[in-house]
Specification:
Elements (H helix, E strand, L loop, with lengths): L50
């Protein structure tokens, strides 16, 4: 897969964090969050929704 492929056809999607952003996806979807390298605290919340 090429870097210029449509987003839906890429194996990974990278997002730059922004304050106030909420990301939600199905639990079966492979996902990961890199370690917080910022000097400020990061708050992450995990939950199930239906």
């Amino acid at each position: 897969v090429h870097a210029d492929a449509p987003e839906a056809e890429r194996p990974f999607v990278y997002l730059a964090p922004q304050a106030g952003t909420i990301l939600m996806w199905e639990s079966w979807l492979r996902h990961e969050v890199p370690a917080n390298a910022a000097k400020r605290e990061r708050i992450s919340v995990s939950f199930n929704y239906a």
